[in-house]
């Protein structure tokens, strides 16, 4: 993994425009090259019994979370608001998959969802929009 590529703050709906690249097992969103994506949203499906898969809804779409054993052992529940960072995998015919390497519950933080949308918009305008427009 190339840690010089920042985790891109994004919404699930933006993944529709992401394309695979030939270099570094990375993904491109316009001119933005990334391997890791950063999402926040509500857990809408949490499987029990040792299953390491969950579904996150950020209000714009869904992403499947593949959890390592470190995170799978924690007590995640449907309805929790979480932040996740992980490696994005493009899949055809299925919802996108994020192999999680960081996951934090933020349910207790007031205004968390509204602030997240503002953070994503701010990052998009400052960093991503010029690159995306250049390659569109």
- How far apart lie the N and C ends? 27 Å
Alpha plus pi helix count: 2
Strand order of the largest sheet: 5-6-7-9-8
The global form is globular
Spans of at least 5 consecutive residues whose pLDDT stays below 50 are: none
Mean pLDDT over the residues: 84
| Main pleated sheet | 5 strands, mixed, barrel
Q: What would you call the structural class?
A: alpha+beta
What's the β-strand tally? 9
* Binned strand content: 35-45%
String of helices and strands:
EEEEEEEHEEH
Rg from alpha-carbon coordinates: 15 Å
Report the helical percentage. Answer: 10-25%
How is this structure best described in words?
Pfam families: RMI2. It comes from Camelina sativa. Helix content is 20%, strand content 36%. The strands form 2 sheets. A 5-stranded mixed β-barrel has the order 5-6-7-9-8. Strand 5 and strand 6 form a beta hairpin. The mean pLDDT is 84.
Quick overview:
20% of the residues lie in helices and 36% in strands. It has 136 residues and is an alpha+beta fold.
Write the layout of secondary structure elements.
Blueprint: E1 8-9, E2 19-20, E3 27-29, E4 32-34, E5 36-46, E6 53-57, E7 62-66, H1 69-72, E8 81-89, E9 97-105, H2 112-134
List its salient traits:
136 residues, alpha+beta, five-stranded mixed β-barrel, three-stranded antiparallel sheet, 2 helices, 20% helix, 36% strand, globular, RMI2, NA-bd_OB-fold, RecQ-mediated genome instability protein 2-like
